[in-house]
Amino acid sequence: MMRHERRTALRLLLVLTLLAASASCLGGSFDRRVLTILTPWTGDVEKDSFQAVLTAFEAKTGITINASPTRALDQVLRTDVQKGEAPDLSVMANPGTLRSYAQQGDLVPLDRFQDKTLGRRLVDQLKSDYGPQWYRLGEAGTSDPYAVVVKASVKSLIWYGPQRLGTQPPDSWAGLVGASQSIVKRGETPWCLAVADPPNSGWPGTDWIEDILLHQSGPDAYTSWVDGKLNWSSPQVSSAWETWGQTVTAPGAVHGDRLTALLTNYGEGAHPLFTALPGCYLEHGALVTADAAAPSKPVPGKDYDFAPFPDLQPMRTPACEVSGDLVSMFRDSPEAEQFMAFPASPQAQQIWPARQLESAFSANRTVTTQMASSYATDSVARRIDELLTSPATLCFDASDSMPSTMAAAFNHAVLDYLNDPTQLPAILTGLDKVQADAYPQPTQSSVCASGSPGQEAQ
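^ ABC transporter substrate-binding protein, sequence as received from the core. Prediction below:
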């Protein structure tokens, strides 16, 4: 019996030795061939699009990526990092969060990685293929790159139904306001508006205010505001709030009313554009949601189209608000380094835009140019692509670039304002107080830059 037990033990030891040798041949332990990534995409469309990127990486490398989607990404990530259980990789909730983790030393800089497929450093690829705005975004206010832009969006857009509106929205702010008032006078509703999106409700309203400030006071004021150098109670910022209020809080201005907008989920906000009898005619934002309940599948260019957000004051250079999703590395490993090179590659950058033509775009200039040539001349996607590659000054989403406490207060302030617009002075004073605590040291965000290589914002 003892001899049998010794033989069993020897067999077990031999099996373990062989397993260890196999793991060594693979370059490490088995679990390093599996990476974890935290993502914010819980909806089927975006989650499936990102999974297509991950699947392409897995097929190319044999490395498995386990994605964990959560709407509370910032909160979950912060808790995991504090417990010492950070994922290998994470999509950043916003550039402000990216900057915070970079300053704390939690992220792995990308400046020494090689893209073995292209035979050059990853940082060289990013500088070559991406505009200065997108590269700086990944630097998080430091001198080192920490992130890759997975996909890009344009926010300075006014969506409308060409057949229902009967014309393109006016290209001036005064004309747009006049058109809205005319719609109200004939007993209909000009604007769709929905700001509910837990746990970040309010952000669709912040996009509005940011766009107005950018096109009313210019990129310099916009950047100073993002960096905490321009107070919320300043004439520039308070004017942006007041202008938005005049647009969406007037009687009959928004579908339902402003209180309905507080309770309506953002993903459903554009649905009234597509109902048999239009519930509204205009929507502001990064994308229009094609409602599955529409009489037929909406056709871009026919059933919905966009016009660029109009300037409120003459600008030396056109300006456009953009946003992007960033992926960074918390745990260094050869597998994680391989992944960081992949989403920056032309192969990966074409996957998401090909699946969501009007709502997801690449910040990679090479890919944008290649895809633009495949679009129809007047297509919605092509014209948005042209905004991303034009000489216009691109300014990254302001609230996404602010410290997380400031961004959260901004979101909440939108809800308070829609609930009671008369409280604006008190709301702005409260935001000034948050700003004083949220910026303990000067910030240099470089949030605005020209879309053309080698040029600065004007």
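Residues 1-6, 12-31, 453-458 have pLDDT under 50 and may be disordered.
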